[in-house]
Amino acid sequence: MSYGLAEDAVDVVCAEAVRDPIGIADDPALAEAVERLRSGRLGYRAVKRAFDIVFSVFILVFFSWLFLIVAVAVKLDDPKSPVVFRQVRVGKDGREFTMYKFRSMCANAEDRLAELCHLNEKTGPVFKMANDPRVTRVGKWLRKLSLDELPQFVNVLKGDLSVVGPRPALPSEVASYTPRQRERQLCKQGITCYWQTRRDRDSITFDEWVDLDLLYIKKCSIWTDFKLIIQTVGCMLTAQGS
């Protein structure tokens, strides 16, 4: 599918999601949760956005030394390639934005994806491979410690992401979502969520991943977000990333 066709498919998916966002009859609890997030829970939404801004500024300022160390390491590992990787992702209700990461793969990683598709270890539209040959030497450790995700706090500050929420997908992935899979886009996407804190996250199916995202939509609260952030820090300190 060409990129243009993929964009058209995403637009169709998003239009359907706006008209009938969740297949209400199939999951009344999810329907109620989404409706409350869209038209109510003003206090929660205000506090969540305020926290996103304050926490992102804190990370960007007080951990600027860590950003510098990671940037130097990435550059020394491959001097000819950019330090920051930019990629179009799909956020809440299908809105596309440019997401930032420290580069953990070779510069032509996206061009090499087609030759590796037959080695995909994940079900559904996502690609996951335990020993992906595109990952650089430094990138392997950045992923283990989840440090490659640090630049996404810029996305949080801009309002593209929240600190906690389902991970944003690629346009090509969203274009092939089933109706239930696209329900994960009914709240603002984030840096971390239930899937990121699972020790067995690399062994669960994509549909199980979606179920965890929908569970977050149903249970999202300040306390839930706080617990997930603490659990995510624990995963980083014990190098559970991949």
Description:
The chain has 242 residues and is mainly α. The chain has one domain. Helices cover 48% and strands 8% of the residues. The chain contains ten helices and four strands, in the order H-H-H-H-E-E-H-H-H-E-H-E-H-H. 32% of the residues are buried. The N terminus is likely disordered.
Offer a few descriptive terms.
242 residues, mainly alpha, two-stranded antiparallel sheet, 10 helices, 4 strands, 8% strand, disordered N terminus
> Could you tell me the radius of gyration in angstroms?
18 Å
User: How many domains comprise the coordinates?
Assistant: 1
Overall shape: it is: globular
The unreliable regions are 1-22
**Please, what is the average pLDDT?**
85
Largest sheet: 2 strands, antiparallel
The ordered H/E elements are HHHHEEHHHEHEHH
- State the separation between the terminal residues, measured CA to CA: 28 Å
How many helices? The count is 10
DSSP E strands, number: 4
Short account of what is shown:
The protein has helices spanning 3-19, 28-39, 42-62, 64-77, 113-116, 137-144, 152-158, 171-174, 206-219, 222-237, and strands at 84-90, 96-102, 162-164, 190-192.
Write the layout of secondary structure elements.
Elements: H1 3-19, H2 28-39, H3 42-62, H4 64-77, E1 84-90, E2 96-102, H5 113-116, H6 137-144, H7 152-158, E3 162-164, H8 171-174, E4 190-192, H9 206-219, H10 222-237
Parallel strand pairs: 3-4
Antiparallel strand pairs: 1-2
Helix pairs in contact: 2-9, 3-7, 4-6
